[in-house]
Amino acid sequence: MADIRDRYDALVIGGGIAGMQAALDLGEQGFEVLLVERTPSIGGVMVGLNKVFPTLDCSSCICTPRMAESAHHPRIRLQTYTEVRHVEALGTGFRVELDCKPRYLDEETCIGCDECELACPIEVPHEFDYGLGARRAIYIPHGNAIPQKAVLDVEHCIFCGKCERVCPTNCLDFTAESRTVHVDVGAVIVATGFEILPMGTKPEYGGRLPNVMNPMAMERIQSSNGPYGRVLRPADGKIPRSIAYIQCAGSRDRSIGVPYCSRVCCMYALKQALLLRHYIHDVDVTLYYMDIRAFGKGYEQFYRRAVAEGVKVVKGKVARVTEAENFDLLLRVELLDEGGRVDEHRYDLVVLSQGLIPAWHADGIIDIEEDADGFVHTPEIKLNPSFTTMPGVFVGGVAAGPKDIPDAIVEAGEAAMAAANYLKRFRWRSRTPAAAVAV
Ligand SMILES: Cc1cc2nc3c(=O)[nH]c(=O)nc-3n(C[C@H](O)[C@H](O)[C@H](O)COP(=O)(O)OP(=O)(O)OC[C@H]3O[C@@H](n4cnc5c(N)ncnc54)[C@H](O)[C@@H]3O)c2cc1C
Question: Do 426 and 347 fall within a single domain?
Fold first, then answer.
């Protein structure tokens, strides 16, 4: 892999679906793009999802072609496992400081054969499966990772040397160090996405109980390449026969600093619930909700389909979740359609539809403003939705606020177009015209 050059047209921060789309749109227009992702693989949240609403397409099947296209595009330089440390505005353009973390191997010669992973004796909870499965101390991030290169987790490595002995290309380098790299770019697109609210945020919902699940972990459990290969509950490996979803478990709640609607929770919960009805014969799945917000194209129809196929929806305010015997869960709920009658139900599994929060903050890194909720501020939201408070810096995807995949893609495309116009206006060139023609 060629080394990072010292000048690009645009920097895209974040290699999720929004960042990849922005990079590809700019690359297709002839701009040279540096796409920086802080984890060892691009793909963001989407590559770990099971299926997507409302079409129920396999998420990784439609995401991986975009990942491959981004990685192999002649005008996109992909830089994974790298953090942006600082972005400084120059007269024209920006000077960027990058922190390239070491994988402790030579990326050029690693062939992604997996031999090191198979030889490693250490097992660690796997981030990709939200801690439900295990990975080794040296590992390829997941089956669809791009690049398919191993990464060594030095915090857990015992330096037994087994990986080094089996490596067919002799690519390991335990002495590697972080590299600081400086790059000049003409424009920046922030596409740093989201994470979900930590599970313990509302202790009354039992977020720390083993059978109270995170919706991202449920995506992995439902995936055919997930940690169990089928839907089992984490505490004891039992097939769950009754499952409750608690909607707005961490959204529309000023008490926890998340006053906004996270927009995708109703739909992902309906999607997961419908799929559970397909995966587990006669399973009882109930969604406890305040309002169902099925706002997108085909979404209302999807909601009707889920209900027609046996998903129960109950307008109710869950007061608390406690553990009963055998890791079962007791859910105490105020039934809003029954005059506020309080009821108690026992479930095998509970999923908390947690809200979305920003995965990254600009503070001290780049001088753009954020909204009170931490998402990137977009002062011209109506007419120029990707503009930030700094000229030349644009935003796309969930970094600007919660949204689904189609909206993230559309917004990232708008950010790329705005960046292209900006670069043309200021006649920014990452290469001399002669060099650009030679590419
Ligand atoms: C449980 C669940 C299920 C969902 N199901 C669906 C569905 O079926 N259909 C649908 O349309 N939507 C669904 N969504 C929403 C969907 O996941 C998002 O719309 C989409 O992932 C947004 O993409 P993004 O690129 O904006 O963010 P992300 O996917 O979060 O990608 C951001 C990327 O930026 C990287 N990054 C962050 N900070 C930095 C940094 N400082 N430097 C470099 N890189 C950085 C991250 O590592 C990540 O790779 C679901 C969401 C959840 C929580």
Answer: no
pLDDT in tens, 142-152: 999 999 999 99
Distance 354 CA to ligand 1 centre (A): 14
Asked whether the whole model's pTM tops 0.70, one would answer yes
Q: Which domain holds residue 388?
A: 7-101+178-193+359-433
Claim to verify: residue 233 and residue 374 sit in the same structural domain: no
Examine residue 106 and state whether it is found in any structural domain, yes or no.
Answer: no
Residue 211 and residue 281 in one domain: yes
What spacing in Å lies between the alpha carbon of 399 and ligand 1's midpoint? 9
**Gap from CA of 378 to ligand 1 centroid (Å):** 19
Which CATH number covers residue 270? 3.50.50.60
> HEC profile for the chain?
CCCCCCEEEEEEECCCHHHHHHHHHHHHCCCCEEEECCCCCCCCCHHHCCEECCCCEEHHHHHHHHHHHHHHCCCEEEECCEEEEEEEECCCCEEEEEEECCCCECCCCCCCCCHHHHHCCCEEECHHHCCCCEEECEECCCCCCCCCCCEECCCCCCCCCHHHHHCCCCCECCCCCCEEEEEEEEEEEECCCEEECCCCCCHHHCCCCCCEECHHHHHHHHCCCCCCCCCCCCCCCCCCCEEEEECCCCCCEHHHCECCCCCCHHHHHHHHHHHHHHHCCCCEEEEEECCCCCCCCCHHHHHHHHHHCCCEEEEEEEEEEEECHHHCEEEEEEEHHHCCEEEEEEECEEEECCCEEECCCCCCCCCCCECCCCCECCCCCCCCCCECCCCCEEECHHHHCCCCHHHHHHHHHHHHHHHHHHHHHCCCCCCCHHHHHHC
